[in-house]
Amino acid sequence: MSALPNSHEALLRNRDLLDGAVGLIGVTDPGLLPMLGEGGLAMSEHAGVYAALSRMPGWQACFGYDDPGLHAKSCDTLVVFLPKARAELDLRLALALWLARAGARLVLVGEKKEGIAGAVKQLRARLPDAGKVDSARHCQVWSADVAEPATEFRLADWLDWTSVVHAGVSIDVAGLPGIFSLGELDEGTALLLDSLARVPVNAERVLDFACGAGVIGSWLQRWQQQSGQVPARVDGVDVQSQAVICARATYERNGCAGGIQASDGLSGVQGKWPAIITNPPFHTGVRTDTSMTERFLREVAAHLEPGGELRLVANTFLPYEELIRRHVGSVERLEQTRRFTVYRALRR
């Protein structure tokens, strides 16, 4: 059995803090659950982790911050794991305080290298009496009592909007804490959009893999419309709950067509498309991690129609070109800067 993340090991050292109905917010390894006792609630915003949590006996799994299984004043102990995006911690704390019953205990766990020291300031802004109860496994464990639970938690209150303008096309993009490139157009996506304008994708249906907040799909449809073309339907898939929520909101605001679904890679995706476009992630927390994209490239041909196109942008130093050639077909570089490259391949 693989070792648990340090934060999960640190919680196990302090399992005596867990009384009554337990809620885990942001759990990343389902292997923790059988070690904690009879059960409780476990929430993850990662579709793959959620699927694994769903198979754990005695535990109620929830996907993201809008899961219908989340109910006010339902937990006696809330464990909040430190997220990789600091802004998301406030969201997790707000959810925890809404889930908490009066007198509940809130436990914050996180690694030192991921910023637990700064996170404590966010915790104490809400619960000033929070105190450290342990320091182990390169982590800190903090605890506080919840005297007054939050009276409401509305995810819509956390949603914000940014106007993104590129190549004369303007779209409104939804944002939530923890989402990639919140409030801005990242350099890689901008280069991908340039390639779509210079060398259009010839397809009535497109899949946007790792769609994030829906920037690529909504921009492409708006650009096609402004160019006098019939906009393609752009479906989207992403592993993160916030991304799915934001992409749906972005599509609705911009009048775009396409279905948005959650999936860990392409494992939950059915069907084939004449074109697939993507700006895939290559980080897990603070580490470079290309495993998700490598798995995508091994599986993508099964979701491309014969002769279908893959359009992918990635950091130039990442070793994707040979993988694309091996699993999809002949590959060319449509755009390249010092940092990013846009690859185009046709399924053999």
Overall pLDDT: 95
- In CATH terms, what is the architecture of the largest domain? 3-Layer(aba) Sandwich
From the spread of the alpha carbons, the general shape counts as elongated
Low-confidence stretches: 283-287
Oligomer: single chain
Structure description:
The protein is an alpha/beta fold. The protein folds into 2 domains: 6-155, Rossmann fold (3-Layer(aba) Sandwich), CATH 3.40.50.150; 159-346, 3-Layer(aba) Sandwich (Rossmann fold). It contains 9 helices and 18 strands. The protein has helices at 6-13, 47-53, 86-99, 116-126, 187-198, 215-226, 241-254, 291-299, 321-327, and strands spanning 22-25, 40-44, 59-63, 75-81, 100-111, 131-136, 139-146, 160-166, 169-175, 205-209, 233-238, 260-262, 273-278, 283-284, 287-288, 304-315, 331-336, 340-346. A 7-stranded mixed β-sheet has the order 3-2-1-4-5-7-6, with helices on both faces. Helix 7 (241-254) links the parallel strand 11 (233-238) and strand 12. Helix 3 packs parallel to helix 4, helix 5 (187-198) runs parallel beside helix 6 (215-226) and helix 6 runs parallel beside helix 7 (241-254). It starts with 5 loop residues before the first helix and ends with a strand.
